[in-house]
Amino acid sequence: MIELLRTDSSNQDFIDLVIHLDTDLAKRDGEDHSFYAQFNKIDKIKHVVVAYENGKPVGCGAIKEYAPNIMEVKRMYTSPENRGKGIASKILAELELWATEMSYDKCILETGKKQPEAIALYTKNGYKMISNYGQYAKIENSVCFEKSLNNA
To answer: How do beta strands 128-130 and 106-112 pair?
Structure first.
């Protein structure tokens, strides 16, 4: 059974999962990794969800405010041996619920074109592709999405 814990970026299980995420992204992104890494610092993230299976951390995700009514989804990761079980969708749903509870209207996110599993996850969960925003506006390998939470 999957259990979800709401926490913050000081949670050691979250920190450990993010290390695995960054290792995976460094391989996928290659020379572009340092550009993306600068936007993925976790020290100030206040809204983190860690998924546990039988007490073992198996996935994580986070949200942080992007604009007054918009949360940005960050640091989504599921350990390779636990993929395909719906864990990431559960984490994403919990993050969306948390954002709704805090009166946010929308979630946005950026992922890489070299992450087809992530693109499939977000599409499956009702996210629509949008023009690249902010620091990702002119980045060829980025794909951005949004989801309205009012009818989530």
So the answer is: unpaired
Dihedral over alpha carbons 92, 97, 101, 103 (to 10 degrees):
70
Supply the angle between the helices 116-124 and 87-101 in degrees, to the nearest 10.
Answer: 50
**pLDDT tens per residue, range 25-74:** 777 656 654 555 555 566 678 999 999 999 999 999 999 999 999 999 99
- Residue 22, SS3? helix
Number of domains forming the structure of the chain = 1
**Domain carrying residue 108:** 2-148
CA angle, 69 as apex, 63 and 70 as ends, to 5°?
35
Residue pair 15/8 in contact by the 8 Å Cβ criterion: no
Tell me the torsion sign for CA atoms 100, 145, 108, 24: positive
pTM assigned to the model: 0.90
Cα angle 127, 66, 74 (rounded to 5 degrees) comes to 60
CATH of the domain at 22: 3.40.630.30
Cα separation of 6 and 61, whole Å?
A: 10
Q: 71: alpha, beta or left, given left = phi > 0 and alpha = psi -120 to 50?
A: beta
